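If you are new to this repository, start here. Below is one unmodified record pulled from the training split, so you can see the exact layout before writing a loader.
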Amino acid sequence: MLKVAVGSSNPAKVHAVKEAFGRDAEIIEIKASSGVSEQPFSDEETVEGASNRARNCLGESDAQIGIGLEGGVVQTKYGLFLCNWGALADREGNLFIAGGARVALPAPIAKRLLSGEELGPVMDEYTKKEGIRKKEGAIGIFTNGRITRQEMFSHIMDMLIGQYEFRKVEKKQ
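And here is the target side for that same chain:
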């Protein structure tokens, strides 16, 4: 059975990985370091965090595949947007990367992040709920529940696994 390590214990991320691999894999949770700030502030930093988590999963386990899923924000001329990235690392040294949905953050939220706060606690305060990042996530709040954090990461997982599978097919040709 394929063993997959996910670099998080966040339920939204873990469920996305379990859903993507189905019953064909044993999924283990590892508190893998991202090596980036608690609040990644660019695509590059968010990709780096996901990649580091994926590789660190392999270094901290006997899994054949390591998964890193990372949420961040990115400044654009249209405002501050959520960004989400994933990485899949394997024992052959391959690293596959995929990005997810984006949505603009309301100005009051963006202002707090730009002043140095982290999105998770800001969202808890904004919604007057606890643990938003482990449930619907900011994307769930700002899309009125049409896209949840788990669904967003599930989409990323499908892209990662698809690239991984394609690589195997490509090598056989």
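Two things worth knowing about this chain: The mean pLDDT is 94. The chain has six helices and five strands.
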